[in-house]
Amino acid sequence: MANLSTNYVGLKLKNPLLAASATETKDAKTMKKCIDAGFGGVVVKSLYGTSIAVARKWHRPRFQLLNWHPKSTDPLKAPDGFILYSVEQGSQFNYDEWRDDVNRAKDVIGDKGVVIGSIMAGSMSDWPEMCEVVRKTNMDALEIDLSCPHMKETHKDSGVELGADPEHAAEITKLVIENVNVPVIAKLTPQTANLVLVAKRIEEAGAAAITCHNRMMALDINIETASPTVWPSYGGWGGPWMMPYNLAWLTKIYADVKIPISSTSGVWKWQDIIAAIMAGATTVQSCTAILVKGFDVVKEWLDNMNAWMDDKGYKSLDEIRGAVMKNLISGAQLKRGQPGVHAVVDEGKCTGCLWCEKICLYEAITVEDAVAEVNEDKCDGCGMCGQVCPSKAISMTKPSK
Questions:
Q1: What is d(CA 75, CA 95) in angstroms, rounded to the nearest whole number?
Q2: Can you tell me the distance from the alpha carbon of 277 to that of 273, in angstroms, rounded to the nearest whole number?
Q3: What is the pLDDT of residues 14-37, one digit of tens each?
Q4: Which of 130, 253, 360, 386 has the smallest C-beta neighbourhood within 10 Å, fewest atoms?
């Protein structure tokens, strides 16, 4: 069996999976459940500073699944084409309660997993206060949240405001590093013009690692009432759809920084974990999959990762970390206008549904006698017809040499 153990910010993890800072890490009891399920570590639900203490109390209800169409009662078979829309924010604990709970988590988890704290401020004066709390815990490392997608709507100087500006993010990172005695990991926001620049400045400030990246701010509207759905404010927007976005930023950051990266946002299946590591991640965090599928999914992930690693002959995750980089090129290097590429229809599979004919912007497809026909001279080779075909009857030819 492959060795899934991982070294991260000086810590030895039994595997690269971390339960992200969210509801599943809200207290010592649920953190222990995460470790028992198979996670290598947990990131504690974020402690919020005094200036944003209002966010310690949660709206009810606070979760909504958009485009949710399950076809099975088995949580492990839940569909991936949905969006998690939510308004949950910081830990419900005050400073003393959070400190005691973190220490309790360390006690009950012991050496079975690592406990990484998480803190977020609404003002610069909050950071020293929370650093003092951190110093009174036995946590293994600390993640600083510079990225909550919708906290700005609660307090103008928190959430994405902390991480969107490279200099401000570096200033906070440096301040926290100087006031705690554990490795500091900065959690980034995708809601900025240049995530790589933020990552580089945070690295220069002394961060031990980077978490890439939080969710995005969003608003869902009921057009019948002209009102936001569920709650009358903005929320966080995430789910499996974010994985390709996350992979793109992982590769960008991996190419430019030397400190480890923890991937988060979008992880839904075991293949996503492998892909994140191939994009440069050292650890991979999950929130939504646990909320929707439950803890059983962790064993499924680990079993499949082990089987895949063994089948490929990989002995450790180090062998695949960053592997995609050698096959990734710039847009300027892409081959363009390749000759000989056009759509081909498998008549045995075609149902004559007309979908391809209706969406072809090159008028290259017609349906005759319930079978699609392609005019190769008109076909531009864009590939959209093959993507929408419900019977998978359309494929694309390879470029001619």
A1: 36
A2: 6
A3: 999 999 999 999 999 999 999 999
A4: 386
CB-CB contact of 261 with 280 (8 Å): yes
Distance separating alpha carbons of residues 304 and 196, to the nearest angstrom: 32
pLDDT score of 401 more than 90? no
H or E stretch covering 162: helix 160-163
d(CA 330, CA 10): 34
Helix (H, G, I), strand (E, B) or coil at 374: strand
Largest CA distance in the chain: 77
What is the distance between the alpha carbons of residues 170 and 237, in angstroms, rounded to a whole number?
26
Single out the residue of 249, 227, 228, 226 nearest to residue 237, CA to CA.
228
What is the predicted pLDDT for the residue at 230? 86
Which whole-number Å values give the CA distances from 61 to 85, 216, 218, in the listed order? 11, 19, 17
Q: Establish whether the linkage from the previous residue to 213 is cis, with ω within 30° of 0.
A: yes
One-letter amino acid for residue 115 of the chain: V
pLDDT confidence of residue 28: 98
Nearest to 146 by CA among 126, 128, 125, 173: 173
Q: Spell out the residues 6+ positions from residue 33 whose beta carbon is closer than 8 angstroms to its own.
A: 24, 295
Q: Left, alpha or beta for 228 (phi > 0: left; psi -120 to 50: alpha)? A: beta
Q: For strand 371-374 and strand 47-48, is the pairing parallel, antiparallel, or unpaired?
A: unpaired
d(CA 126, CA 132): 10
Contact partners, residue 103, CB within 8 Å, separation at least 6: 137, 138
Q: In the chain, what are the domains? A: 6-327 (3.20.20.70), 336-396 (3.30.70.20)
Could you tell me the pTM of the whole model? 0.95
| Residue 149 pLDDT | 59
